[in-house]
């Protein structure tokens, strides 16, 4: 086993949004970032294809004032506003693309009972979104974790299904499909999760779903890694994070050269909760139970290029919910690319989450392609001869969500401690995972680390 000769200031385990945000904040320190795969970025994954790109995971980024937007500006990357409709619906083989979701109870082919049920459910969701934003807004007296605790307590004792109540079958299917965008079914996610999910689309200027990164979401992690250079070690599978008697932390990992070990004054563990539990030794019992209760749902997506040369019926749509198909969501990522001068081609992605994704995990890529392609052509027959390159991506730990009754207190309590040397970061600090939540948790962990390094004292787990 090879051991580093001198301790690092900080070792960061995991190169997703949380780890990258932490590394960027601490880049003036002696740091190392260990990533087990052959690229950084986690669910920020895309493949560049000239004018277009193929997205294979997260693709929505928040606007100015957010932590991710500041990072994007630091890296001199460009963002693109989303001009397309983000709340389209496909019902009974027909696409409805309204910019005002309030019109759907009157536009969709529904019975009087179904119209009433959809209207009432929509009003419940609208009120939940308003209450969510009231709880999420920073307050003058807030400390670092107070706002997180307040958001996590919001509608935490009920499921999304409880919030919506009993629904006619067709309305149930429609809202269940929309809810699966979180990678959880309605009875699995808390009421706070579905409020957060709809807030991301309905929030106007406050909405998370505001921008794309030009060139694809993968451009962001590529840029961070390019700036950090040799301080990023890829294909480094961490097996243990353990405090030492000297007050430092030992990190054991295996890379292409074999078994390695390094020491660091501080460590940020920025991997999904199940992996964090596995590699960090001597976790406090309450924290261990809390991490064990963090839930992730799967999703399977297919990104593809298209070869159209004329205007298409999906040109003005960015996102569409698709009940009754093998995927929950349809995304038109070509929508954000400037159309002047007009250029041929486009880029689409389809997404299946939660119970819609689990059967797909058992299929091979060609079987998933065939299933998704079949339903894409059902949705838009014009696509039969327009689908070009397609890439399937499975995410078994696809998205983190809060289940009803989850108690985040042990995690927040641990994060307040100032005498620890191992810190945790990830989207599981939030009620519903996304890259902004993950990056914020990484930044908060980095600030705690910076404070600990400034105090020049050892820490404990």
The CATH class designation of the domain at 2-42 and 218-294 and 406-455 is Alpha Beta
Query: Low-confidence spans: pLDDT under 50, at least 5 residues?
Result: 456-461
CATH architecture of the domain at 2-42 and 218-294 and 406-455: 3-Layer(bba) Sandwich
Estimate the helix proportion, in percent: 25-40%
In CATH terms, the superfamily of the domain at 2-42 and 218-294 and 406-455 is: FAD/NAD(P)-binding domain
Query: End-to-end distance, in Å?
Result: 24 Å
The radius of gyration is: 22 Å
If you consult CATH, what is the topology of the domain at 2-42 and 218-294 and 406-455?
A: FAD/NAD(P)-binding domain
Structure class = alpha/beta
Give me the count of strands: 19
Q: Approximately how much beta-strand content do the residues carry?
A: 15-25%
Overall, the morphology is: globular
Mean pLDDT reading: 92
Can you count the helices? 14
The biggest sheet, with number of strands, parallel, antiparallel or mixed sense and barrel status, is: 8 strands, mixed
Structure commentary:
There is one protein chain. The chain is α/β, with parallel strands linked by helices. Among the domains are: 2-42 and 218-294 and 406-455, FAD/NAD(P)-binding domain (3-Layer(bba) Sandwich), CATH 3.50.50; 46-83 and 210-215 and 296-401, Polyamine Oxidase, Chain A, domain 2, CATH 3.90.660. The chain has 14 helices and 19 strands. The strands form 4 sheets. Strands 1, 2, 3, 10, 11, 12, 13 and 19 form an 8-stranded mixed β-sheet that branches. A 7-stranded mixed β-sheet has the order 8-7-15-16-17-14-18. Strands 4-5 form a two-stranded antiparallel sheet. Strand 15 and strand 16 form a beta hairpin. Helix 11 (285-292) crosses helix 13 (409-416). The longest helix has 25 residues, at 112-136.
């Amino acid at each position: 086993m090879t051991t580093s000769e001198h301790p690092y200031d900080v070792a960061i385990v995991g190169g997703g949004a949380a780890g990258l945000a932490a590394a960027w904040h601490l880049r003036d320190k002696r740091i190392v970032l260990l990533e087990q795969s052959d690229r950084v970025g986690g669910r920020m994954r895309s493949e560049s294809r000239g004018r277009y790109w193929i997205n294979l995971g997260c693709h929505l980024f928040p606007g100015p004032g957010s932590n991710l937007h500041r990072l994007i500006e630091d890296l001199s990357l460009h963002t693109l506003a989303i001009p397309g409709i983000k709340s389209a619906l496909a019902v009974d083989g027909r696409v409805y693309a309204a910019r005002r979701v309030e019109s759907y109870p009157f536009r969709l082919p529904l019975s009087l009972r179904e119209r009433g049920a959809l209207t009432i459910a929509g009003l419940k969701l609208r009120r939940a979104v308003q209450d969510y934003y009231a709880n999420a807004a920073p307050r003058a007296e807030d400390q670092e974790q107070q706002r997180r605790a307040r958001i996590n307590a919001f509608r935490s004792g009920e499921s999304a299904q409880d919030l919506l109540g009993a629904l006619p079958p067709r309305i149930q299917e429609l809202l269940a499909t929309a809810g699966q965008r979180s990678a959880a079914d309605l009875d699995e996610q808390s009421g706070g999760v579905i409020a957060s999910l709809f807030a991301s689309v309905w929030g106007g200027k406050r909405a998370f779903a505001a921008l794309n990164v030009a060139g694809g979401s993968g451009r962001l992690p590529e840029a961070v890694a390019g700036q950090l250079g040799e301080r990023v070690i890829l294909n480094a599978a961490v097996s243990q994070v353990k405090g030492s008697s000297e007050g430092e932390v030992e990190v054991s990992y295996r890379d292409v050269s074999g078994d390695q070990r390094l020491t660091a004054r501080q460590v940020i563990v920025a991997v999904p909760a199940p992996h964090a539990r596995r590699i960090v030794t001597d976790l406090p019992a309450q924290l261990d139970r809390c991490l064990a209760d963090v839930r992730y749902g799967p999703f399977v997506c297919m990104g593809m290029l298209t070869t159209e040369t004329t205007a298409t019926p999906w040109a003005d749509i960015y996102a569409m919910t698709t009940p009754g198909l093998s995927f929950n969501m349809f995304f038109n990522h070509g929508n954000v690319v400037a159309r002047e001068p007009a250029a041929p081609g486009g880029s689409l992605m389809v997404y299946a989450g939660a119970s819609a994704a689990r059967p797909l995990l058992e299929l091979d890529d060609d079987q998933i392609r065939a299933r998704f392609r079949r339903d894409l052509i059902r949705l838009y027959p014009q696509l039969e001869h327009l689908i070009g390159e397609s890439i399937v991506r499975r995410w078994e730990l696809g998205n983190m969500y809060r289940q009803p009754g989850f108690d985040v207190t042990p995690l927040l309590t641990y994060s307040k401690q100032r005498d620890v040397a191992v810190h945790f970061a990830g989207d599981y600090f939030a009620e519903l995972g996304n890259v902004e939540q993950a990056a914020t948790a990484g930044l908060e962990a980095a600030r705690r680390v910076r404070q600990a390094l400034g105090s020049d004292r050892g820490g404990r787990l």
